[in-house]
Amino acid sequence: MRSPGLAETGQRTEALAASLEAVDLHRELVALNRDAYLPNLAASVNNHANRLAEAGRGTEALATSLEAVSLRRELFRLNRDAYQPALATSLWNVGVVALKTDSVTTDEVVELTAEGVSLFEILAAETPAAFAEQHRAAARTLARVRERENTNDRPSDRLA
Hints:
disordered C terminus; globular; mainly alpha
């Protein structure tokens, strides 16, 4: 069973172990053939960020989510049309991870989540049936991230 399936059945520890194993295996494959396996590594890293968030490991989850964005930006530069949806998903996921873990909402989290919303807006305009719901969901996430940012959840705001 894959890590998302384990997570959905409440087997969070097993899901986290499975997602880490998937990331490790995909890193090995990328070392052998980057072009062939980079998309799988990016997806595994993105999933692993969610598993870390579900385990309450906010700092690691956010760093892992940012790694997924970096990997998907690389893919996007190689083939914009093929990887725009994946990049939009990883950008959106930065906000999701921050919300799941009660992580500090930084300007970077807001900016990346907003970028994901913008990419989904473009995709939804081109193919509404495929992307309109993701665009709406990403926009809701962005609103929640901005709301958190505005309620002084950032340490620097609390100290001011």
